[in-house]
Structure formats: structure tokens, C-alpha cells
């Protein structure tokens, strides 16, 4: 049987309500947590301060988790390394029951589910390297340090060509004639 790196043996706490145990563990993340632009990558280390309390019907686990998220700024794609910490509290029952989400199995409780849920819930959808990140210059691909001015030259060359045609009168604006006639008709009705 392969044991999850998030699994903790609680044999000494079973059937001993009122007993408490504290321990520290480092978990090397076996599988990336988080699907977005910021995540705990495979191989990242989670430091966990764990308190286990034995109750009549199960073990209450309180885990203070901290580690470093990695990923990229959603605007400029710069690499990010952000500290993350959070507290996870979960009851692991001895007996299976409809209302029970987590169980103590083979003297083990597995912290992976609750930790994963807590991390994913808090991950920013669009992480930024700094609050006012201006993103990348679409022309140079460099990170912008000040707001970009919109130069005339940035007009799509195809539009530029069309603009030239309009100015030279090569394209007649037929559409206008119709609406003018309508407007005239309306105003003459008003007078009548
Ligand atoms: Zn950025």
C-alpha cells in the first residue's frame, strides 16, 4: 500500500478521548495543487504544524500550513513566488456515516483533501506581480513601466488604408442619403 505523504498515523489517539498530540511535518507536494496561474508546484514543500485531538467519535486535526506558491503574473507573465499560509480544521471520524466526509483509516488520517480544498479556494484567479502591473508592451513584448501612450501609428495598417480611401473620396457614403430623406419626410409631416 502506498502511503500519501499527507497521511499521519494516529494509532495512539484512538479510543483515548481527551488526548492531544502536536507535531510538525514537511510535506513535499507530490502533485501540483491549483489549476490557475498561481499554484503549489510538484516538489514544493508545505510546512505543517499539526494539532491532533482525540474525541469520542474521531480525531480533530488542526493544521497550520505554509509554503511558497509559484506561477506567473497574469498581466506581464513575470515569475512569481508568493508565500501562502492558512489553517485547516477537519474532523476525521472512526466510524463511517452519511454525514462524515473524512475517516481515520488503518490508523491513518490523510490531510491532502482538506489542504487542497483550502488552498484552491484561496488562490487568486488573476495573480499580479504588483497591484498596478501594466502588463506587456504589445509591440516590444517588454514589461511596461509607465502607461502606454496610444500613438497614431498603432492603428491597424488595414484601417489606415481604408482611412486613406475615405479621405480621397474613393468610397462614396451612399448610406447617408437614405436617412436624410427620411428625416426630411418626418419634418415635413410635422409642419403639415
Ligand atoms: Zn506583472
From TrEMBL:
Organism: Gulosibacter chungangensis
Segments for region (Disordered): 136-192
Sequence ranges of Basic and acidic residues compositional bias: 140-161
Protein's recorded name: DUF177 domain-containing protein
One Pfam family here: YceD
Acidic residues: compositionally biased ranges: 173-192
